[in-house]
Each structure stands twice: as structure tokens, then as C-alpha cells.
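In this section we walk through a basic example: taking a raw amino acid sequence and producing a predicted 3D structure, encoded as C-alpha cells. The instruction is simple. Fold the sequence below.
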Amino acid sequence: MGRAASLAGKILVLNAGSSSLKFKVFDLEPFAAGMGGMFDRIGDMANSTLIAKGPAPDGVSNETKKWELKIPVKDHVSAMQNIMAFLKENVSKGFEKEVTA
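The resulting C-alpha cell sequence is shown next.
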């Protein structure tokens, strides 16, 4: 059994580009894709946008919800901080503790 298989929680996958940061969250047990999206136009303070799609945060309905939030970010670090805050708010309150490194 691999390390990931022995842990309950989530995996956060990131893909950094020159002006974007894509993310996808996977539940481990059972393994399933969840919330995903991207921060686009990083560094363009007037147009940087967090775009996400995933299960409704109520955890009950099977509906998919979409978000498009204008958030000024100057760099990838700021984008990552905003992504983590967004995931904590919309995936689970203890999200940062559930992520497997």
C-alpha cells in the first residue's frame, strides 16, 4: 500500500505557468476528482481572476457550481494564498490540514 493510499484526506495538484496557476483537488477515499480551476492573469492587478468549478459547497446536492472572482494578485505566491483561502471556504474548513504533501 502506497503512502497516499494509507492517508485519508485530499491531494492538491498544481501547474504553474508564466501568468497562471492551475489547481485540482482529489479526494483520496474514495479517490475522486473534486474542485478545480485556475488563477489567470497573475500580475495584471486590474484583470487577475480566480476561476473554479466543483461540487456545491453545501456537500449535499450533486450540483456543480462555478466561480469567477476578480482578485488582484501581483505574483504566484499571492495567487496561491488566495487559492488556499478559496479552497478552505469552499471545500472544507480544515482544507490545509487535509492536503497530502
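Looking at the output, two observations stand out. Confidence is low (pLDDT under 50) at residues 1-7. The CA atoms of residues 6 and 67 lie 32 Å apart. In the next section we compare this with other chains.
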